[in-house]
Each structure stands twice: as C-alpha cells, then as structure tokens.
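The instructor's notes for this session suggest beginning with a concrete chain rather than abstract definitions. Hand out the sequence below and ask the class to guess, before any prediction is shown, which regions might be ordered.
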Amino acid sequence: MALPFFKKGKDKAAPPPKAAARPATSAAANESVPTETLLTMEMGGSGIVVEETSGAPQSPIDEAAILYASGQADTAEQLLHGMLNNGDRRAWHMLFDLYRVRNQEKEFEQLALDYAMRFETSPPVWQSLAPTAPAKPQAQTESLELPGLLDKNAAATLREGIAAMPKTAVVRIDFSRIEMIDEAGAEACTQILAVARKAKRKFQVSGVDRLIALLQDLLRATHSRAGHWLLLLELYQTLGQQEPFEDLAVDYAVRFEMSPPSWVAVQAAEVVQAAPTEPVDDALRLSGEITPANDSSLQQLGGYAATHTEVIVDLSQVTRVDYGSVSQFISVLMQCLGSGKSITLRGHNALIHELFRVMGIDQLAQLIPHQPR
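After discussion, reveal the predicted structure:
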C-alpha cells in the first residue's frame, strides 16, 4: 500500500507551470499556495520505500483547500466563488462551510438560494460553526421534543406539554427530529402555536430550519395541502420573519383562492441549537483550530491513540486544520497504522475534507465528513 507523506520542500524548485492557461483568479491564488514535497511510503514485506513527488495542487479545489488551511480565507473564498459555475458541488459545499465558520449567515442564505435554483434541490440549512459565547442561563425553561412524525398524536403531546407549563416559563420546542408531516398534524400544530403566541408565551426553538425546509419541499409539490402552507406561515410568524411571511401569504391566496392569515407583530421566538445527542462511542472530540501554535489537539490525539485500538476522532467542532500542522497530524496517524490500529476521522467540514484528500490522509484513515442537511 502506498501511503503519502510530506515535508517542507524549500530546497526543491516548484514544477514548471502547465502550458494551458489558468483563470486569473486561480493563477493568483496558486502563487500564494505553500510548496510542499510529498513522500510516497511503500509499506511492504521488504520494508518502507520513500519516493519524493511534487505536492503542488492539481486543481482549483486543491488550491482553495490549501489556501484556507494556510490562513488565507479571503483568497480561498474568491477562488471558490469563481468555481460555482462549473457544476462541481464540492466548491459550493466548501463555500457553505466557510460562511458557517465565519458566521456569515446573510452570505450563506444567498448562496443557499443560488444553490436551490442551480441544482433544483434543497440547500444546506444554516448552522454556525463560529465560536460562541456561553448562553445566558434562563430562569426557567421547559423543553418539548417532537418525534419523527408530526401527526395529531405529536400535536396533542405538544398541546399538553405547553398547557402544563407555568405561563412565565420559556417554552423550548425541538423540531430537529421531524422527518414527516401529515396534514392533520400540521393543522393541529398551527393552532397550538397560534394560541400560545396570542397568549404571549415566550418560545425558544431548535431544528426549525429543518422543519421549514421540509415544509418548503412539500409546498413545491402539486398535491400540497393548505395545512402545510398554514403551518409554514405560522412558523414565519412565530420567528418574526415578516418578509417571507408576506411572500408566502400572497402565494397562498393565489393557490387556494382564500384570504391568508394577517401578519401580527409579536416577540419573535429565540432560535437555539438543538441539544447534542449523547455520544454512542468512545471517540476523541476535538474543537477549534489545529495550528502549530496550538498543538494541544494533536497531543490529545497522540495520547488517545496510545490507549485505543480503534482510533475514532470527531472533528465536527474543528474549524480549521492549519497547513503547517498537517505533517504532525500525519505522523500521529502513521504511528497508529504502524501499530495495527484502525483510524476514522469524522464530522469535519468540506474545507478540511478537501485538505485531507489533497494531502493523502484519505489513504491513511477512513474519512466521514459532515453531511449538510
């Protein structure tokens, strides 16, 4: 099995440029991409054979991944924008994750709209990866988690749960598990939310973007029912999103030839992150940036790998792996392989995934990147 490794290649000249001209943006970006030397390590019965090959990026996707890893996020963003018209969804998802890391929700939503129009499918939903300040504690918050099917039974549970709470309590509703919505459940849920809103109940909601995306998919179908439209209108009302409410209300009136609900100014619900699920394995969970100046994560990885036969590393909260840290990262993985350990790296964003691919880490470990929803 050939395993790629690399080292700094300051003493080795970069390969000559190809004859074919590259786009101006890509060429400019390529000039600032660090130069590395890849080492191909052949692990066989006769020992380890090392061969050096050029580590220059072979495509704009490679360049963008390395630029981001090198701390040049603005240049990477410019390069990714220039690739959106070529139909390669990797560039889109890298840009989505770049906006998530940089907490640029407005740019993310515009990109999501362009993505939906280009590929005629639902785009990823917004979820920031940027570091956040600790949430302020709530005086009293009651949580209600809805099941995978939003039907009359689920709505009844929601109604009873809200009714049992003190009127001063903050009602937290988790929509993140919902996969299907029937018409009766949609109608009942609409009525429950409307009654609670008129009673001036305070809401926190999680997973609401996913529910909205499901409803939008239903509304695009020719057989969509009025109950689904009304639930989406009520969600926009609950969230204080007047512009999408008004746009949908016009479409509702045209579609069903009925007067839609009217907008009412209310205190908007607070959107919060869904509570993380309990881990089902003994994975090492890293977070933040992995850089030469902050190598505690790699130290954790080395210590964890020393005591585990199955090395599982969760990178879902890692925003960037610095280009200068990749050699040490690979060194730890090589030690694991030499000890007969299996390695799984999971949950990483698209920018990190493409960096791992460029540097050959996909040949050292099983990669399970974050799947946008």
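Then share the key points. Confidence is low (pLDDT under 50) at residues 1-30, 37-55, 133-139. The radius of gyration is 25 Å.
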